[in-house]
Write a structure and sequence with these properties.
homodimer, alpha+beta, globular, DNA-binding
DNA sequence: TTAAATTTGCAATATTGTTGCAAAATAATG
DNA sequence: CATTATTTTGCAACAATATTGCAAATTTAA
């Protein structure tokens, strides 16, 4: 699906900045931080606009956040079937200590864990740190 | 073990700020962010000192970081057997959406996952979101 | 084509984290 | 216990990251 249709699908106004950010995600394939995106926009849009765009996309379920072991917040495109409110992004994320790139391991599902009595589970996030395929 | 002995065990100077921060961790029981700690210190010590204290404790293995799905970095006391350089904090962390408190589920180990060919794993973090025992 | 609604960019401000350095506190020594 | 050496602290300055209000510009609806 192209960027314009994706925006319409989620009932969002089609604007330059939203298209740019979507294109950047589509081209990169991986997970990006706010500053990654800002860098690739080369000053085309304001920092604030990027923040708001990411927020909007996350609210709509177009992108999802990835927790990292350090400080940064990363975002990645949801799979097509993420639609309908709740995400299907329960795959493992991988952070390479060599190239510092975070990858979505789409084929590695997050295993279920048995919680102590009384805990109710909604969501699980899992981040593996190590050396990725390309840096090996 | 009391705070003072703990500091000596790790060959750290015993200072007011370190004792205060340790006490805060011991009383809270749960995971705390930098600003949690700063808040409870009520201006007793400088922001910078808190940063440095947390850094020192993390380096020595007295506390460990917990990745969260949002922005914040949380810290929690390591178990006694964390000593000797490498941590035994490979347990699951639980974030309650009601009380917003992060707990270490010490008895729930992070399951191992099989990574795609070529990926080498060093470390795994797992955060479960849901409703905790007390908020149920 | 025009009016209504939304989005953007700017400015200001808040929050979070880092660094250098002199003063203070702690540890080591006799 | 007193003195010296080492470490730690607090301040100031700074950098990076994030948020808010508001007028101008853009997009959508009519």
């Amino acid at each position: 699906m192209n960027a314009q249709d994706l925006l319409k699908k989620y009932q969002l106004s089609v604007t330059d900045s939203r298209l740019s950010v979507l294109h950047i995600f589509m081209q990169s394939g991986g997970a990006l931080s706010h500053s990654d995106i800002e860098g690739r926009l080369k000053g085309l849009h304001d920092r604030v606009t990027v923040y708001r765009t990411l927020q909007t996309f996350a609210d709509k379920g177009i992108i999802h956040q990835i927790p990292t072991t350090d400080n940064a917040v990363l975002y990645a495109l949801c799979k097509e079937d993420c639609a309908g409110g709740h995400h299907h992004d329960n795959h493992v994320h991988f952070l390479c200590t060599e190239c510092e790139i975070t990858t979505c391991l789409d084929d590695v599902m997050v295993p279920t864990v048995k919680l102590p009595r009384g805990f109710r589970q909604n969501d699980v996030k899992m981040v593996v740190t190590g050396v990725c395929k390309l840096c090996k």
